[in-house]
Design goal:
The protein is of the alpha/beta class. It has helices spanning about 15-25, 50-60, 60-65, 145-150; strands at about 5-10, 30-35, 75, 85-90, 105-110, 110-115, 120-125, 130-135, 135-140, 180-184. The strands form three sheets. A four-stranded parallel beta sheet has the order 5-2-1-9. A hairpin with a 4-residue loop joins strand 6 (about 110-115) and strand 7 (about 120-125).
């Protein structure tokens, strides 16, 4: 099989993971992400079951374990700080928590504005007005994927189920009296 020039839209978990495997099999891969730089901080991800098997196959288990977030769990507290519900972290050894590369190219702070495909290639127009030609464009840009929306028929059903539940998530800096249990 000839080496393909592939653009992956999405710098979260799926994009770099796919880039790892495609680059390892000899393809030229570029990952484009809207964030202006590789994220050194952010919400941890919870890796379990199949994710652990994939990380082992990638040879990254020691790296992931060395960068995991140590957190005992999370408590939901009332105004007086009394825990009303607590969810403890999985410490079974079957789920560490966090990824990066020299195998593929990143383009930070950019997004795919639109693309055109013919029988030979995909021409991609990015947010910085640069045009690129690729053998393949892969949408790994999350639930609200603009790539997926662009290739589906106008009347396609929404692929995301909306249960009517909302959750707010934010970061609270630690202070000297905090323990390893997050409190909300």
């Amino acid at each position: 099989m000839k080496s393909l020039n592939i653009l992956i839209c999405g710098g979260g978990c799926a994009g770099p993971s796919l880039a790892f495997w495609l680059a390892r099999t000899g393809h030229r891969v570029t990952v484009v992400g809207r964030f202006p730089a590789l994220r050194a901080t952010g919400a941890q991800i919870d890796i379990r079951e199949q994710g652990i098997n994939v990380i082992k196959r990638m040879g990254l288990m020691d790296t992931v374990r060395s960068r995991r977030v140590i957190e005992a769990g999370m408590s939901f507290v009332n105004e007086q700080g009394t825990a009303k519900a607590t969810i403890m972290a999985n410490t079974s050894g079957k789920g560490p928590q966090t990824m990066t590369s020299e195998l593929w190219k990143y383009m930070f702070g950019k997004s795919v504005e639109h693309f055109e495909q013919d029988q030979h290639c995909v021409t991609v127009y990015s947010s910085d007005s640069i045009t690129g030609t690729y053998d393949m464009l892969i949408g790994a840009d999350g639930q609200g994927s603009r790539i997926r929306a662009a290739i589906q028929p106008v009347d396609a059903p929404d692929p995301v189920r909306h249960p009517g539940t909302y959750l707010a998530y934010w970061y609270v800096p630690r202070n000297s009296t905090d323990d390893q249990l997050g409190k909300f």
